[in-house]
Structures are given as structure tokens and as C-alpha cells.
Prior knowledge:
The complex is a heterodimer of chains A (237) and B (409).
Chain A: E1 3-9, H1 20-31, E2 36-42, E3 54-57, H2 62-84, E4 89-92, H3 94-98, E5 102-104, E6 111-112, E7 119-136, E8 140-154, E9 162-166, E10 175-176, E11 178-180, E12 183-186, H4 192-195, H5 197-210, H6 223-234
Parallel strand pairs in A: 1-2, 1-3, 3-4, 4-12, 5-7
Antiparallel strand pairs in A: 5-6, 7-8, 7-9, 9-10, 11-12
Helix pairs in contact in A: 1-5
Chain B: H1 2-18, H2 26-34, H3 38-43, E1 50-54, H4 59-72, E2 77-79, H5 87-97, E3 108-112, H6 115-124, E4 127-132, H7 140-143, H8 146-159, E5 160-167, H9 171-174, E6 181-186, H10 188-191, H11 197-201, E7 213-218, E8 223-227, E9 230-234, H12 241-257, H13 263-270, E10 279-285, E11 288-294, H14 298-308, E12 313-318, E13 343-347, H15 351-359, E14 365-369, H16 372-381, E15 386-391, H17 393-406
Parallel strand pairs in B: 1-3, 1-4, 2-3, 4-5, 5-6, 6-7, 11-15, 12-13, 12-15, 13-14
Antiparallel strand pairs in B: 7-8, 8-9, 10-11
Amino acid sequence: MTTLNILHLYPKEMNLYGDRGNILALTRRAEWRGIDIKVIPFEPGDKLPKKVDIIFGGGGQDSGQEKIADDFKRISSDLKILIEKGTPALLVCGLYQLFGEYYQPAGGKKLKGAGIFNLHTVASRDRYIGNIVLKSKKFGEIVGYENHSGLTFLDEFEEPLGEVVSGFGNCGKTDEGIIYKNCIGTYLHGPLLPKNPKITDFLLETALKNLGEKTELKELDDEIENLAHKVATTRPR
Amino acid sequence: MKKLSILVGKTVQKVSKLRGGSGSALPGLVIEKLDPEFAENILKQLPYGVVVVSGTNGKTTTTKIVTELLKSQGLRVFTNETGSNFFRGVISAMLKNIKLTGTFNFDIAVLELDEAHAVKFVEKVPINYALLLNAQRDQLDRFGEVDHVVDLLQKVAKKAKKTVVLNREDARIRNIEATKKIFFGLSPDLLKKIPSEDNLYSKTETSKLPASVILDKIDDKKSFFKIGDKTYSAELKLKGVYNSFNASGALALCQEILPKADPKEFVETLEKIESAFGRGEVFNFAGEKIELFLVKNPSAFQISLESFADENHDYMIAINDNVADGRDVSWLWDVDFSSLKNVKITSGIRASDMALRLKYDNVKVGTVEEDLETALKNFASQKGKKKRIFATYTAMLELRKIIFGRSIE
Lengths: 237, 409
């Protein structure tokens, strides 16, 4: 049986808003197709494992982000290599920002990011909170819940995850998130994957393709996923 | 000025009730504007002063326990009602209990306040004691992150002139500073059953600080409390390990307030205390006995499941996402539902989200029915096992309306 290794970045410090649901979505949707999942929690000081098939990282409290900032610098060039060679990844909120070029806090010094995504983030005084719906070329309609105060600006020609149908998104313009190679960055919690199974399956399928495995995933009954998705699009901000 | 404000306040209360309101917020608002020192002037005259109970989970039940324990020792206790755990709610409750002459016949006030309102309250009104239960993820869209909540509780603790009672097993809470602080805690065995914010996500170290009251053991019937070098046992009507733990906090606090009282009498009083509104309330609907549990955040839901998920019951889960519930339903993914069997129905606005969540813990769901009344009728019609409902705040209010609007009590 095939085993996929999911690297879960800083599960202790970066675990806001049900991000564990993303891991659970990947795990179950793989298991239901007879694929084994091994989740490797990565804590500050750990050595990066040799075999990484999918990368996941969530958002954290300010204190959590401070704790991991130095360690993240240590591993960022290795993460960049993994992303460049096509490893599928999902980064939500805090780690989405850290995968960019820099983060500019209000009044403080610029914090350097991993420079994997061509984007930067600037702190703002407001918080952008509420249900959000996107339209994505790759995944169709995407639903989620955003809660951030950073404004993220993609460089020219970068591809967002989707166009904002309702909600705020990266910086109040029309875009939300980013797709670079097989790596997705986004502000969407909810958590993102359970109600957007197409994204989950994209991550799994890409991981299998990278291993040279048969990539056609078995269809699952997504009735309840689709219903929960549909209800989420009708909810007020 | 004082008598005038009381008269105005009471009048506003009547008028607002006639108009169909709960009479809870508006009178408080009027008094706040008319007589900003109203609460302070009255409460500072109480011989035992003011006690604030705060924290994310367990405030309502714990406030009730403290109130009953002090009453059993002959104190006249003023307390705020459920659902009014904010400053204006306290003022409204005071208006109901004060005579037009300004007489406020109480010895002590025991007030449940949510974290943000507790800070506003202690900035205006002097307090003697605080009982701080826990800092867990609640409505992050309202309060921000857990660290921020701890900052709020620290501000409350600083204002307590006598004693602050802290949960030893919550690392963020036990490090709160105060003039005098004492602890309530758990035995190592029970520690595994009550998740704190940190050990809900990962393991954290335990503390060896001495605790005034320790919840030592729970068996099928009884809870065992270690107070000093003696152990006392009681059969509580309040079920669940977390209620017994909150009772430990209440015991520690009441012993500080009344150091001469016999701990045995306090523990005996615990046996008589009934559940507060929506915290394991039992009611009859269509001939079925149903227990109703409020769940409003992941840690509260998790500890409810630890105590109340078993094979002998059928379950219904009702999840709304109205503002009072929190619009964001992500928190459901921080709860581990794998201990749950026999979920007959999920309901509420986010019935489908709940069913989806259960699917990913491999828990089968009978029916998904958004409409609460249809769901409740369907649930009650399934004869056999005893029944339990977990519901978010507004779902619980709606269910109560359906139940008590129809049944002849």
C-alpha cells in the first residue's frame, strides 16, 4: 500500500481555528481510497524528514509566531527546494505570510519570510473577519472563513487562489491567496479542506503523481461535503 | 440622585418588559448614563464585598455553586442571572433587588462576568475576591486570541483586594499574579480527563504547586475532595468531571471567604445543587426524557463528551452560527468526536457542517435536518435509548422555546 508523508509544520504553535481539520481531511480522503497517511509533526529544532510528500502549515497566535520565527529561518531554504520541485503544500494564514518575501509589522522592523511566494504582507489596524466565497479557475467555488489583519500583496503576474465573490481576501481588492507550482497559500480557515474536497484531492493526486503512482483517484460520495459547502455560501459575513 | 436613579431604572425595566424585552440590558444602559457610580456606591457597602467569577468555561455553574455554598452558611448573596454576565446585566439585576429606599439587603455579591466585561467592571467597582477558571478558545472572532484573554484576567486579578483563586492545571491561569493567590487542582489521574487549552493540542507539564482543594477521585456516584489533609466525598447532582472540578474551585473560594466554616458542611451542600440553565438540564418532550447540554467552544464540547458520550444514549447535535454562537464553525474541528456513537440527527443552521465533521471522525449520522423543531420531533419519536442533545447557545434557546412552549409542565 502507498504511504504519503505529510509534514505538519509547527502543530503546537500554529494551530488556530480548526486547522487540524485540514490534516484530517487529507488523512481520511486518502484512507478511503486505500492510501496510507503518515503525519509528521515538525517542532522547532527538529530535523526535516527525508521523505515529504505533502506540506501543511496553519496560523498561530502572535506568541506562537514569535516562537517559531527563528526556527523557520533555519528551514526555509530547504522548504523552498521542496516547493520548487513540485511538492504539494497548503499554508494557511500565519505560514502563508511567512512563505512570502516579508512581513511588515506596524511600527516594527520588517520580518523576512522564506521568499517562496512572490508576495509581501503589511500589518493593518483593522481585522477582516467573516465568511468568504471565492471563484477559482482551478477549483471552482471555494468557501471558507477569514480572520486576519495583514494585507497581502501579490507581485505582478502571480496567480491568486481565487477571485473574491464575497468577503475581503488578500488586501481588499479582488484576489485571495496564491497558487505557486503545487503550493497553495490562503487566509481561509473553515477549515479549508473539508468543505472544498477538490483542493484536498488535488493535493493527494499531485503527491501520488510525484511518486510516479497511478494518479486517478477513486470517486467518493461527497454529498455531505457539497451540502455543507452550499450552506456556507448562504451565510452572512 | 441614588433614589431617583433607582426609580428611573425600575420604571425602564417595567416598560421594557411590557414591550417584550428581557428587561436585562436597557435599564442598565439608562443607569450607566444617569448615575455612573450606581453599582460602585451600592456594592462597596456589602460587608463581604464582591466576588468575580470569570474564565472561558464553567462560569454559570460555578457562580451558582459559590452562591449556594455561601447561602448555606447564612449569608445573603446577591448574584446576576444567566445571560447577563456583562456590566449592564449586573446593574439590571441590582435594580430588581434594590428597594426604592435604596436598601440593598445583601452580605456579598457573587458575579459571573465574561472576561472583557470583568475588566470593565473591576475598573469601576472594587472587588475582594476573584475565581478564575480557565482560558480556552471561545469566540476568537470576539475576544481575539487566548493570550489576550489571559491579559484580561490578569487585570481582574490585580484588582482583587483579598484573594484570587486560580486553576492550577491551566498553565496560563496559574501564572497569573495577585496580592494573594491560592489554587484548586486535580489529582494526576483526573488531570488526563480535563483538557486545558494547551494539552487539548499537545501535552504540557503539570504543576506541583500546593492546592487548597484537590479533586482527588470520581467514581460512579461520588466525587472526592481533598481539603487540607482530609478527604470529603459527595454525590453531586451536577454530573461530569468538570462540574466536580469547578466545585473544587468554589470550595477553595468559599473557605477563603468564611475560614471558620466546616468544610464538611460545604461538601454536603454540594449534593443539593441542581444544574444551571442549559447545563445538563433534564426535560420531557413527547414522552421522552431528554438531557440538554450547552456547547459553545471546543474545550467545553470536549469535556462534555468525556463525561456524557456513552453507548447507553442516543444523541442529537444542534449547531447554529448566529452571532451569539460565533459565525465561525471551524472550532468543531478541534473537538475529537470519535467517542460518540448513535448520533441520530444533526440539526441547526450548520447541521451539514456537523454531519461533515462527524463523517471525518468515522461517526455515522442518521439524519441531517436543519429545522430544529422537525429534528426534535424526529429525535423524540425514536424510542429505545435515553436521549441527550448538545446544542450551541442560540440553538439551545430555540429548543427550549419549542419544548416549553408546548409541553404542559
